[in-house]
Amino acid sequence: MLIGVPKEIKNHEYRIGLTPAGARELVGHGHKVMVQRDGGKSIGLTNEMYQKAGAEIVDTAEEIFRRAEMIIKVKEPQPVEYAMLREGQLLYTYLHLAPDPAQTEGLVKSGCTAIAYETVTDRKGGLPLLAPMSEVAGRMSIQAGAHALEKAQGGSGVLLGGVPGVKPAEVMVIGGGVVGINAARMAMGLNAHVTILDRSLDRLKYLDEVYGHQLTTIYSTHDAIEERLPDTDLVIGAVLIPGAAAPKLIARQQLQLMRPGSVLVDVAIDQGGCFETSKATTHQNPTYEVDGVIHYCVANMPGGVARTSTFALTNATLPFAVQLANKGAKQAMLDDEHLLNGLNVHAGKITYKAVADDLGYEYVPAAIALSLT
Hints:
alpha/beta; Rossmann fold; 2 domains; seven-stranded mixed sheet; 15 strands
């Protein structure tokens, strides 16, 4: 199979979908790999490293999209990219379709087969290709929130960990999954006072057993969130409904309960955000203010630590890429139900129910869609 890896073009996105080591693995399996020139240069992955691994260096994304049978990316295709996709071509990347009707329409019209990293599953019911970036984003959320709390950034001027004689910041993490746990760990490491809310009693029990008195666990309800807003300095939105739009957990009117200069970090912004006042931002302009509350809603947070993120992501995505290349997309998905769960679009059909429901498309189960082609 001929595999193409274009350079990412989203604002301040420096990750790349395949490392030289990954290229070498695919070449070793008898496949051909094309990488766009300087695609990984900004994170120390040079053209020469890819060439040594057996990859071909090409000058333009247009050539990659024109020639490749499988496109491996990191972020969802931008309009200029999904316009180049063609019928039967395989796209393997993050998609986050539910809050993005324009991209969804573009993929449907292209006739391509689009596998979303964020909906591939594992035997334990987890999301193995989303987890590495959730770990990064969870940890980064505290760094970003701490910076936004600084007075010069518009924040309230609170140090997360306080100092002797001055109480630490109050951090509320909504969601006890991978993002939430990693955010809580970072905040606790900085000596903040951390409360985590979740609707799974099993998850709350686990967190209580692991962290004990270091972490306050609360069953998540709208009342529980609202009660804590007046005393909270930093809120991390860490909720996830796989493939679907995130629920709105804090309404605009509730911002009036928070102290001026408090900070909201919305890690769910890729899925539309979990605060009513959230709108996607970039690393170039990461924050904005609504009713005195600072919002950080960068849609590609892990891109800020692109080298770490690239290696963490490709460690997880490469085995599936090898399966897809070795067997072909259709057979690989039919052989692996977890990879099949990653299929979101195929031959003009929406094959992931949450996306179809949120955007008003007819839902065609993935196995049925594959059987029709």
